[in-house]
From TrEMBL, chains A, B:
This is GTP cyclohydrolase 1 type 2 homolog. SUPFAM superfamilies: NIF3 (NGG1p interacting factor 3)-like. Keywords: Metal-binding. It comes from the Bacteria. InterPro entries: DUF34/NIF3, DUF34/NIF3_sf. Belongs to the GTP cyclohydrolase I type 2/NIF3 family.
Length: 263, 263
């Protein structure tokens, strides 16, 4: 019998138990049997409902369940959305494990590897630092052609660009998710890259840095793809890992629409 | 002679000196004479250059100069964009004062008042809580009609919507800027509103809360306008205040293009 604990052990094993981490069991029991696993980017209400209907025993989610990084619930006590979501989870008995810090701590970063695969950019990544990509010297790329590539490979309708969209790109950085302005700006300041591709920014940080750089005449540009699409395909790494270790368990990736639409 | 100190005193006076604040003099001297003031949303490199060319003595900016809320510079030391911006500021001798915490602490919030004026929504605001708006009972509004109004009044090309765009709206919240997921969600959870309009969110917080609420069948929607356009017009409050107090000083609002474009 495969249990929640056995799956968690497998997910944690490449890193070892972290002392401080948001990756905890949000619901369910460690000794519960697991026949079906759903891997998701975000445990939305709709995704949990769908998982329950499909008979999923364990959801592995990259992002939080309760609208804050630490999944703190006290401040939400009595909030109707929070209470209804919590009731669905508790009544179903489904297990939810967040896999954020561990998968990013795999060597190399599991999300980054999954994204490079999805983008067919694996061979461009530097072996010392896989976030650093060098495009083939016989190919001509600009920010605009890379936007088109990201759209087609990740299914994104439009994205945000700072700097000149027609800037030629030879070397670039890929930082999925929202790793923060300091991390983006330090990378831009220390690496010889033309373009940084990120998931999400705070507008007054990375966006303004790249705007200023471009206004100074520096060959720098930024693409902001949106957080979900910048990491979602990366969770495929987890699907493959679990299928390999536990062939008797059904493991499926559950895609999810974006929370927002552009009008 | 009007000095930087006299202008700062006027800006601080409605609140009194705050002990902890990001609103500090970022450059220049308190005893310098001021004949020309530029009010901006963000002290971009281009805006500072333009101000210097126009002979501006003091820039009043709502947002930081150095890509982080505290305007900390140590971590940026040696960064070419930071050093070039700092050199422009120091060589010009221009004074830069950040006006963020004070203007938001005016009673009522100076940015909010300016935005309500720009949107022609002043009469809809509750007198107890000006962020709470009730639309006229003889008018029919949906999220979509309000998006159209925001676009035309604020010059926004497109914005993000969570929930049903055709949801009828009677009562709504207006929270310019990026006040954070907890503040947005607490407002949504405690007020009887159909729609919340905000400047900027973290995607995994407010957006996901409203997505879940809508998927639960609750009549809730969210509009995310973008940070700059949600607050920029609010700085007009400061322009008017200074013109009234210092008629001998030239005070102008300097608009700024967005840092990013959508492709």
């Amino acid at each position: 019998m495969i249990t929640v604990q056995m799956i968690l052990d497998r997910l944690i094993e490449p890193v070892g138990q972290l002392e401080k981490t948001v990756d905890t069991l949000k619901s369910g029991r460690l000794d519960a049997e697991v026949r079906k696993v759903a891997v998701v980017f975000m445990t939305t209400y709709a995704a949990i409902k769908q998982a329950v209907e499909l008979g999923v025993d364990l959801i592995i989610t990259h992002e939080p369940t309760y609208y804050n990084h630490m999944d703190e619930g006290e401040w939400l006590s009595g909030n109707p959305v929070y209470e209804k979501k919590r009731a669905l989870i508790e009544e179903s008995g489904i297990a939810i494990f967040r896999l954020h810090d561990y998968v990013h701590s795999y060597k190399p970063d599991g999300i980054l590897v999954g994204m490079l695969k999805q983008l067919e950019w694996e061979s461009y990544a530097s072996s010392e630092n896989m976030r650093l990509l060098t495009l083939p010297s016989d190919e001509v790329h600009t920010v605009r052609t890379l936007v088109a590539h990201l759209k087609s490979k990740l299914g994104i309708e439009s994205m945000l660009v700072a700097g000149n969209p027609d800037l030629p790109v030879k070397r670039m950085g890929l930082m999925p998710g929202a790793s923060g302005g300091r991390s983006h700006i330090k990378f831009l300041g220390s690496q010889d890259i033309d373009l940084l591709i990120v998931g999400e920014t705070s507008e007054w940080e990375t966006n303004e840095y790249v705007r200023d750089a471009a206004d100074m005449g520096l060959a720098k540009a930024l693409i902001v793809t949106g957080h979900q699409k910048s990491e979602e395909a990366g969770m495929q790494t987890v699907v493959e890992m679990l299928r390999e270790t536990f062939p008797e368990v059904q493991v499926a990736f559950m895609e999810c629409p974006l929370a927002v639409q552009r009008i």
